[in-house]
Amino acid sequence: MMLYLMDIWDSVRGFMASGGDVLWLVAAVLFLMWVLMLERFWYLNLIAPKEHQGIITAWSEREDSTSWHAHRIREAWVSQAKQDMNARMLIIKTLVAICPMIGLLGTVTGMIQVFDVMAVHGTSNARMMAAGISMATMPTMAGMVAALSGVFFSTRLDAKMKISMEKLKDSLPHH
Question: Which family is annotated (predicted)?
Fold first, then answer.
């Protein structure tokens, strides 16, 4: 088991080395994005239902649910629930959007290295240029994969939040 983990670590370290320093930045952004998305999934599945049930209970215990003031209170509670649910979603969407840009930064730095090798050693040394080309392509690929995973799961998270909010609104009848 320990040997297997060492092999995995060596593979990850080799991949990160082939992509250069920008690949570590992509990994950090990806880690932060996934921590925030997992927190939102946790909130949506465990915390929000309890909060929504509290709102529904408070609404059903009200004697007045038809006046203008009651409607404003309902709107305020729904708005607060929506605000709590959408917390950190803007950060998640921003991280998703910058992943490909960070990957392109890796492309630029890798190509600079290729041009540097070409300037020092000429265009005939393909082995030396290969390291720069690897540093140009690996972060781009990693940034796109990170962005795709973020787009897929943040879209699912958004849809689940909208459904949850609609259920809350439907559970608060107003006449």
Answer: Belongs to the exbB/tolQ family.
pLDDT tens-digit profile of 19-60?
Answer: 788 899 999 999 999 999 999 999 999 999 999 999 999 999
pTM: 0.84
Domain boundary assignment for the chain? 22-43+54-170
What DSSP letter does each residue of 115-151 carry, written as one string? HHHHHHH-TT-HHHHHHHHHHHHHHHHHHHHHHHHHH
Q: Which of 154, 162, 47 is nearest to 99 (CA)?
A: 154
Tokens of 33: 């994005």
CB atoms near residue 137 (< 10 Å)? 17
Instruction: Give the whole-angstrom CA distance, residue 123 versus residue 128.
Output: 10
Whether the CB-CB separation of 121 and 158 falls below 8 Å is answered with no
Chain segment 110-159, per-residue pLDDT in tens = 888 888 878 887 776 777 777 778 888 899 999 999 999 999 999 999 99
Distance of CA 74 to the CA centre of its chain: 31
